[in-house]
Amino acid sequence: MSKKTIEQDELRAEYDKSDFERLERGKFYKHVIENSNVVLLNDEVADVFPNSESVNEALKSLIRVAESSTKASKE
Description:
Elements: H1 17-21, H2 29-34, H3 43-48, H4 52-74
């Protein structure tokens, strides 16, 4: 049987339709969101920072400034 003659909602012989009835959509959604390090940038920020390297460098600079200002205020 060629691919063209298989109907779209017909499963291949190696799949058992009963296996798919137990699936739960979004089962791991909360886990992925809680354990993800993906950050979405606002459009105006993304326009300034074209890639992750530039974002990381800017944030590292901000960390250095924050740390040095904290040290200066403690002295």
